[in-house]
Amino acid sequence: MSRPLPQPVPVREGRSSREVDAFCVEFAPRAPGHPAVRDLQHLLADVPSEGLEARLEWVERWVAWLRDPMPALGLMEPTEPEAPAAVTRLALWVRVLEARASAREPVAVLVREVTSATSGLKLFSQVGLPTGLGFLDEVSERLARRLLPSPPENHQLSELLLRLFPDPGDADLLEGLPPELLARLSTLLQGGTQPPVRGPAMMVRTSLVDALGLLAVQTAALGLAEDVRDRCPEVSFRSSPFLKLRRVCEGVQARDAAPDSLRELGDVVEECQQVVAIVSSHLEQYGVSVDLVYRLERIRRSLERMEAIARVLGAEPGEASWREGLVLMTDLLRQAHTDRSVRAVVAGNARLLARKVIERAGHSGEHYLTTTRAEYHRMVHSAAGGGLIIAVTAILKLYAATLALAPFFYGLALAGTYVGSFLMMQVTGFTLATKQPSMAAAMLGSAIGQGGTAGRLSHLMELIPRIIRSQIATALANMGTVLPAAVGLSMLFAWWKGHPLLNAAQAHYVVDALHPWRSGTVFYAALTGVLLWLSSLVAGWMENWAVYRRIPEALAHHRALRRALGDEGAKKLAGLFSRNISGLGGNVSIGILLALPPVVGNFFGLPLDIRHVTISFGQLCLAGYALGPTAVLQPDFLAALGGIGVILAINLGVSFSLALGVALRARDVPVRDVVRLVRLMSARFLREPRAFLSPPRA
């Protein structure tokens, strides 16, 4: 975003252009007419003597002058290397203040008055840190700040920071300023010719020490919360470092940040970070909550802020102190801009939650993979049973369409048909091909995040062929049994009723609806792939919800269940719930999701529908039997058969790609690792294609 350049201040009456020219010649003999030098002369001549708002406006003009991107060629000595514009202008500013005490004195007074009239406590203890409101409250707070006007807070350095540097890119400018120049400038502005008892540096130091105390109180309260302590049984309450944190910070305040007190603070902060790591590792095992993750992130970032403040306080006065101070201020500026972003807080927490949901979905996907030939054959038999159920589902779906039902009841009938079919598969142990990609991709993403690069790639080189051959076997087995089952049921119906299950008009409608380019098959198949992926997220979320709230443990120890079933019976019920909650959530959700598009489309007048490959193939088989053997060789029917192949590719490809993309994002996997993996897998496929089609003999 372009920023208006600072406007030159009109020359006051009584200040002749000859004086300005003399100033320019004195401090820029190689470029006496440079606009930067003239603007600087105007700034020095217009330093306000009273009024906080006037002084802040002057500081804002000075920062605008400093960050002006206009090249400052000719302002440095010939022997000095050319520096960025901001560095050159800062050097000129320091040179002028060192040479002219009359210019230095008003600026020093202004800096002292601004520092004494503003507070840095909020800047150092709150900016860039989660507010502790929780995820939803934080999102609503940021939305309110974005949509509603904010009252001015001239007495807060946190507001002044954004006022002076309104562009996120200004952090790079601030980071590039030389600490030695800032140290010289600080020495010049410590109070002018009559330094006060408490100069600007001392006031800022006091704000830093106070921020340490405030952060210690807030962090200790969060670290001692019940849900945090429950997930850190290794550390007792009395030995918790969060109890020590407040006491140590009080010692830092009492001893004016003595070196030994800062070292003790650093040790305690490190112990607190270890506790946070323990709690995070337990979240990996016992499930995750958005609010708990949010509070852990606040603890982690508060501890990092305390370390940064301690480094500034412990640095030697002068250049070293300014070097640490620049690091802190640059970080504060970047985080101050992030604080106003709703997208940042949503993306950060969604990534953490997605990681757990993906892992839970990955656990559910383990039973969709095969390693040995025996497992491969069991998968084929399981998928064959799934095809039988889908053939019945296709008949029930077509039958529901013939009923004169209101849209709500039609959707209810569809949802009941789908949910009943998928739950029947779960009870019988049968498999559906289109449910595999999301679960397998989630498991693949979970495996990508484990171990080092070498071990991870080795593991993936074995895992990916297992995924591919398992999905191919399941898809072929589903399709292979849908065909005879649908034809057999049609023959049985025709023998019973004396006519095919579908009439000619219904059969032609099915054929036309599956045409790959004369209908919305491609779009509907992609929509179905998205719905299949969403159901895998629901499955992972359901398992995470049950694990986080320890539902299986609660069932195993429930008094009524133990009286009715006995201790062993209650434990078996808890185990059954734990093993099936993910499948239950996934099956119910996909049944409802597949029923929604036609109903929602009918409500809004949109031609929405789904194209599920096995259900669509079952309907096409029913239509083929109704039309007769000669019709199945016609171009339209063959095109519809090709549409089944298109639906298969899109269903599997969309759901797998979405699940894998979320998994990779949740794991922060670098793009180069993904590219390397694709290259290695392509080479292996060319070398060993059989490994992707069938399991090894041994």
Computed Rg = 35 Å
What is the residue-averaged pLDDT? 81
SS summary, helix count:
28
Q: What gross morphology would you assign?
A: elongated
Q: Would you report the number of β strands?
A: 0
Please trace the helix and strand order, writing H or E for each element.
HHHHHHHHHHHHHHHHHHHHHHHHHHHH
Class derived from helix and strand content = mainly alpha
Strand content: under 5%
Kindly state the percentage of residues in helix.
Answer: over 70%
Low-confidence regions: 1-16, 192-197
User: What composes the largest sheet?
Assistant: none
Tell me the span between the first and last alpha carbons. Answer: 63 Å
Structure characteristics:
single chain; 698 residues; mainly alpha; 74% helix; elongated
List the helices and strands and how they pair.
Blueprint: H1 17-27, H2 35-45, H3 52-66, H4 85-99, H5 101-117, H6 121-125, H7 135-147, H8 157-164, H9 170-175, H10 179-188, H11 200-223, H12 226-230, H13 241-254, H14 259-286, H15 290-314, H16 319-338, H17 342-364, H18 373-402, H19 407-428, H20 436-448, H21 453-497, H22 504-513, H23 521-548, H24 551-556, H25 559-604, H26 613-627, H27 635-667, H28 671-687
Helix pairs in contact: 1-2, 2-3, 4-5, 4-10, 7-17, 10-16, 11-13, 11-15, 13-14, 14-15, 15-16, 17-20, 17-23, 17-27, 18-19, 18-21, 18-26, 19-25, 20-21, 20-27, 21-26, 21-28, 22-26, 23-25, 23-27, 26-27
